[in-house]
Amino acid sequence: GSAPRGRGIFTLRGALVPLFSPAIALGVAPGAATTALVVRDARGRIAIAADDVEDVLTLRDGELRPVPAGDDRDAGVLRGVVRRGTSLIAVVDLEALIAACRGTSQPEVA
């Protein structure tokens, strides 16, 4: 695996929160992220840098499709894809992304 991609630490409601870039785990070039998605797992809060957060989607059963074959840049952090209109949207496995950002091989289990 690769080393953790820490970008810094900030305080949220009195607690220190590490900020990570998911670029390497997602197989994309690092960008100038201006937003962060803060999530919690068994080890505590973590912030994941993002260029933008447009929406949160609710998926129906059977709507998630496998990641197209032939492109393995995502290091196993994509759960699948979903079609919305003419767009194909990648669905991230949050536990796998957190593990990749922290530089651990397995997601933490509570």
Q: How far is the N terminus from the C terminus?
A: 22 Å
Global shape: globular
The Cα radius of gyration reads: 14 Å
Major beta sheet summary: 4 strands, mixed
Mean pLDDT: 80
Helical residues, percent: 10-25%
Supply the number of helical segments.
2
Widest β-sheet, arrangement of strands: 1-2-4-3
Helix and strand string, N-terminal first? Answer: EEHEEEEH
Class computed from helices, strands and strand pairing = mainly beta
Beta-strand residue percentage: 35-45%
Low-confidence regions: 106-110
- Counting DSSP E segments of at least 2 residues, the number of strands comes to 6
What does this structure look like?
This protein is mostly beta strands. The protein is built from two helices and six strands. The strands form two sheets. A four-stranded mixed beta sheet has the order 1-2-4-3, covered by helices on one side. A two-stranded antiparallel sheet has the order 5-6. It is globular. It starts with 5 loop residues before the first strand and ends in an 8-residue tail after the last helix. The model is unreliable at 106-110 (pLDDT under 50).
